[in-house]
Automatic annotation (TrEMBL):
InterPro entries in alphabetical order: GH, GH10, GH10_dom
Pfam families: Glyco_hydro_10
One BP term from GO: xylan catabolic process
EC number assigned by the record: 3.2.1.8
Residue ranges of every copy of the GH10 domain listed in the record: 1-299
Protein name, as recorded: Beta-xylanase
Alphabetical list of PROSITE patterns matching this protein: GH10_2
Natural source organism: Streptomyces humidus
Organism ancestry: Bacteria, Bacillati, Actinomycetota, Actinomycetes, Kitasatosporales
Keywords: Carbohydrate metabolism, Glycosidase, Hydrolase, Polysaccharide degradation, Signal, Xylan degradation
Family, as annotated: Belongs to the glycosyl hydrolase 10 (cellulase F) family.
Length: 300
């Protein structure tokens, strides 16, 4: 096939992009989006600071714009994200009472997941909950510090009740290298969840890489997680300077694992990227295909 989405679909996978609602009116942007991609992830529009900026007052306008664009163009939607320590309004971060925070967290998950019920392929239920310090433990956050270790499990159970049709993912960065304490910490959590029946269906590997691309054991990491009985997905792929070979290696790692169900790049053109100074994406500022585009398409 001649596009990323159509080629990925030939093996039952999707190829997606992070999308900003404010750019949908740019014809070059939406032209590439609708030609190449069959999945979208709202880059910021479903984050807590947007969806519930003040307690109990929900704003679904920007997220709805993306979901309605996706549904009219045959694109699936990855929901991003229900519980995250970042882009979190300060009123949540200042809660110190566990019962209050538990009810605020569960109400947020229930209200957002219920609003989008039936239109979300997979939710990043919890994002970036593990520490970078080599401990393999959860990072400090208001959720961890006030609710304790059980907050992740509680979030997944609440999300399952709210939208039983969506796949529920744990999503994080720097868990691509099998030989890292953070990867091992997430692996132990997923193994524990599966053994106790906590509802988790997938793990998202953000895949924000340096110019060297993925670690050599990335495919091993993906297949080890898949062996626990979850799907795996590359959820926020971008690679500094976008070397073609690094994109080839990344896409191959997913293609070689049957439960790797799809890949999302974190933006369309380099100018759209949160790392735009590093030109990490598949299309240049004018919307032209880069060498990395051809590499990714060939590897699918
Ligand atoms: C980034 C967005 O791309 C930026 O526009 C925003 O200013 C900050 O967040 N991990 C994630 C994403 O899970 O939500 C982040 O997205 C990038 C890192």
């Amino acid at each position: 096939a001649s596009t990323l989405g159509a080629q990925a679909a030939q093996s039952g996978r999707y190829f997606g992009a992070a999308v900003a609602a404010g750019r949908l009116g740019d014809g070059t942007y939406s032209g590439i989006l609708d030609r190449e991609f069959n999945s979208v992830t709202p880059e910021n529009e479903m984050k807590w600071e947007t969806t519930e900026r003040s307690r109990g007052s929900f704003n679904f306008g920007p997220g709805d714009q993306i979901v309605s664009h996706a549904s009219s163009h045959g694109q699936r939607v990855r929901g991003h994200t229900l519980v995250w320590h970042s882009q979190l309004p300060s009123w949540v971060g200042s809660i110190r009472d566990a019962n209050t925070l538990r009810s605020v967290m569960n109400n947020h998950i229930t209200t957002v997941a219920n609003h989008y019920k039936g239109r979300i392929y997979a939710w990043d239920v919890v994002n970036e909950a593990f520490a970078d310090n080599g401990s393999g433990q959860h990072r400090s956050s208001v959720f961890q510090d006030v609710l304790g270790n059980g907050f992740i499990e509680e979030a997944f159970r609440t999300a399952r009740s709210a939208d039983p049709g969506a796949k529920l993912c744990y999503n994080d960065y720097s868990i691509e290298d099998w030989n890292s304490a953070k990867t091992q910490g997430v692996y132990r959590m997923v193994r524990d969840f599966k053994s106790r029946g906590v509802p988790i269906d997938c793990v998202g590997f953000q895949s924000h890489f340096g110019a060297g691309g993925p670690p050599g054991n990335f495919q091993t990491t993906l297949s080890n997680f898949a062996a626990l009985g979850v799907d795996v997905q590359l959820t926020e792929l971008d690679i500094a300077q976008a070397p073609a070979g690094a994109y080839t290696n990344t896409v191959r790692a997913c293609m070689n694992v049957s439960r790797c169900t799809g890949i999302t790049v974190w933006g369309i053109r380099d100018s759209d990227s949160w790392r735009s100074g590093e030109n990490p994406l598949l299309f240049d500022r004018n919307g032209n295909k880069k060498a990395a585009y051809g590499a990714a398409l060939t590897a699918l």
